[in-house]
Amino acid sequence: MNVHETTWRPSLPPLAETAAGATRRIGVEIELIGLDVAEVAALVAEELRGDVVARGDYEHEVHGDADGVWAVELDSQQVKRLSRARDAAAEASDDPSDPEGAAPEGAVREAIARIEAAAESLFLRGAEAVVPVEVVSPPLPLPRLADVERLIARLREAGAKGTGAGLTYAFGIQLNPEMPRLDAPTITRYLQAFLCLYDWLLGRSAIDPTRRLTGYSAGFPAAYVRRVVDPSYAPELAALIDDYLADNPTRNRALDLLPLFIHLDRDRVRAVVDDPRVKPRPTLHYRLPNSEIDDPRWGVHVAWNDWLEVERLAADPPRLRQLCARYSERLARPLGGLLSDWGEEVKPWLSEGR
C-alpha cells in the first residue's frame, strides 16, 4: 500500500459491538519525528477539518471532531513540565504588579531565573531532536480507522519519520481497542489469545532493537504465561486482577491491562500500582508494533490486521481452548520448547492460515 492508496477500510472483529449494542471504539497513538508539534497539529486539523488549540509549545489539541479531542504533543513528561514551568515563569516576569523587579535582590533573582530559563530552553530544543511527537486520537468507532490511515499518509507526505529513521528512535504505534464485554471470562479469553499469539505478533512487528532495550513493550513473565494459558484457568475478576498485578505491576507490557483493570477496580490496582500515568479506560492497550510512518507500505492497517487475529481467536472459544492446550503442552516440555519456533507453529491456527 503506497501513500496514495487511502481507500482501505478496516475489517471488523467478530465482536464488533459492546454489551450495550454500540459500535466498539478504538484509540490510536502514533509516534513520529521529522515534524514539530505545531506542524503535526496543523496537518491533523486540516485533515479532520478541526481547529488547533495550543496549550503550550509542546502540547496542542485539535477540536472539532464529533468523537472528541485529538492531542498532539511531545512525548515526554519532563519536557512538558519544563515547558509549562517556563511559560508560567515568563508570564510572572511580565506582571507589572510585581514590585521586586526594582529591588537589588529582585534583580539577582531575575538574572538567575533568566539563566535557568536559557538552560531549560537549550534542553527543550535538544529534546525536540530525539523525543517523538505523539498523535493521540479520541476513542473512534472502529470504521474510523480508515481516517487514521489517511492521516498517516498525509503525515508521511509532509516528512514524518518513524523508528527506522535513527538508531535511537524507539517509536511505536499503540492501539486501545474497547472491550466488547467487561466480564472476567471475556477478558481472560483476550489475554489467553494474545499470549498464545505473542511470538507470532512479535515476529510480525519486527521490534526495533532500541525499543526492545527500553522495555516499553516487553513480554510477560514465563511463569505468568504458563498459568494463564492453562485451559483450566478461569478466575473470577478479582483473582484475574490480583494474578496480573502480582507478576505485572508495570505499564511496560506488550499488552498493558492496567488501564482496563483500574477502570474495573480502582482501589485494587492503586494498592499495587501508584503511577499517575495509568488512567482508567475500558480498553486493552496494545503497545507492540513499531511506528514505520515513513514506509509507504505501512499504516495503521498493518497493526490492526495483526491484532484482528487476537480478536478472532478470543471470539472462538473452542479454537482458543485447543490452542491453549497445545501451548501449555509445549511450555511444559524440557527447556520450554526452545528448540522449536512457536511463532511458526501457531500459523496454522490463525484465522487466515497466514
Model description:
- The protein has helices at 37-48, 77-93, 104-130, 145-157, 184-205, 209-214, 222-229, 237-247, 258-264, 266-270, 300-314, 317-332, 342-345; strands at residues 25-32, 51-56, 59-63, 70-74, 133-136, 140-141, 173-177, 255-256, 285-286.
- By secondary structure, the chain is of the alpha+beta class.
- Strands 1, 2, 3, 4, 5, 6 and 7 form a seven-stranded antiparallel sheet that branches. It has a two-stranded antiparallel sheet with strand order 8-9.
- Strand 3 (59-63) and strand 4 form a beta hairpin.
- The model is unreliable at 82-86 and 118-124 (pLDDT under 50).
Features:
single chain, 354 residues, alpha+beta, seven-stranded antiparallel β-sheet, two-stranded antiparallel ribbon
